[in-house]
Amino acid sequence: MNQIFKVVFNAARGKKMVVNEATSSVQKGKMAAVTVAVAGALMLGANTAGAKAIGGEDLSGTVTEDPIGLDEVLSVDVNKGTIDEVISGHYFGINKYTTYLHEKEKAFKIQSTTTNVSGDVTVEEGVFGGSKFSGGFRDNNTECWKSSVTLKTSSTNLTIDGGKFGTFAYNPDPEAADCPLCEPAMRRVVTAADFVKDRGINYAGPVVINTSVTDANLTINGGEFYSTVYGGSVLSAYGYDNVNLSSTVEKSNVTITGGTFNAPVFAGGAAMNFHENTPNTPHEGSQITSIVKEANLVIQNVKLTQGLYTGGLEGYLRDKKNCGSQCHSARRC
């Protein structure tokens, strides 16, 4: 079972504390801070394997009422342990349980995120300088609906000083995985901005997810990376109709001064679509766009075993056994 740690206000102690997701509370403030460590007092010695460190709120489960008073200044520190993901912003879900989004148009905003990852830490899947969206579900008996969500973030600030990233063991069985060779590209990522993943299943009308970041900043001073690194947002659609994903980053700054990279580094973002029947095209009524208007990349004193690109990635995943992708407006260094 995944463990998610969030901040709640402890009235008895007069301060905010890090607690497990099962703890009930309502946050009224405009600032949140999370610290995650395997053996630290905040975690009470809990095993963080399968956990998600979230700087904001977990809105991926059962959410029936509009979330009010979401924090706009978010921070999270991760310095020890093995976890699934680091989500600097909020964690949004679009599914049958998030009924506050059904047949609705919603807009959210974040002023800033600040994330520091260091020490003896392993992140098996993704590290996101912004927020995460996870949509779609498998339930043929569920009533269909449509939804539109807009998220605007002023700035993201992600700093990595060490650790190991992208170690999860994806399913090698083509019949049991959406795309076994593509899952590393679609899930093992470090991104300065947002991460949006959508399966697009059982949507009656278009589902629209639109994110924007004014200033995205990623600094890597060390670490071992099996995750692909992006300066922009990463959008992954698993090839269903009526899924519209878009992200715009006005300015991205990626500075890398140390580390070993066993996967590519992109100054821009990524737009990836899995389409089993018709390769190189999205499904009907679907569009996936990831834009970085200005990308700045500074890199020195690193070991690169894969490519270094000054642009982004556009990928069309052809089937469950093969992947096809291309560097879009990118130049390999």
SSE inventory with pairings:
Layout: E1 3-10, E2 15-20, E3 31-36, E4 51-54, E5 58-59, E6 73-83, E7 85-87, E8 91-94, E9 104-123, E10 127-128, E11 132-135, E12 145-160, E13 164-165, H1 183-187, E14 189-191, E15 195-198, E16 203-220, E17 224-225, E18 228-230, E19 234-237, E20 243-256, E21 260-261, E22 265-266, E23 270-274, E24 287-299, E25 303-304, E26 308-309, E27 312-317, E28 324-328
Parallel strand pairs: 1-4, 3-6, 4-7, 5-8, 6-9, 7-10, 8-11, 9-12, 9-13, 10-14, 11-15, 12-16, 13-17, 14-18, 15-19, 16-20, 17-21, 18-22, 19-23, 20-24, 21-25, 22-26, 23-27
Antiparallel strand pairs: 1-2, 27-28
Overall shape: globular
Low-pLDDT residue spans: 1-29, 38-49, 318-333
Characterize the biggest β-sheet: 11 strands, parallel
Mean pLDDT: 76
- End-to-end gap: 42 Å
Helix count equals 1
Helix content: under 10%
> What is the rounded Rg?
19 Å
Our estimate of the beta-strand percent is over 45%
- In N-to-C order, the SSE pattern is EEEEEEEEEEEEEHEEEEEEEEEEEEEEE
How many β-strand stretches?
Answer: 28
Helix/strand class: mainly beta
Q: Can you walk through the features of this model?
A:
The protein is mainly beta. The protein has one helix spanning about 185, and strands spanning about 5-10, 15-20, 30-35, 50-55, 60, 75-85, 85, 90-95, 105-125, 125-130, 130-135, 145-160, 165, 190, 195-200, 205-220, 225, 230, 235, 245-255, 260, 265, 270-275, 285-300, 305, 310, 310-315, 325-330. The strands form three sheets. Strands 3, 6, 9, 12, 13, 16, 17, 20, 21, 24 and 25 form an eleven-stranded parallel sheet that branches. Strands 2-1-4-7-10-14-18-22-26 form a nine-stranded mixed sheet. A hairpin with a 4-residue loop joins strand 1 (about 5-10) and strand 2 (about 15-20).
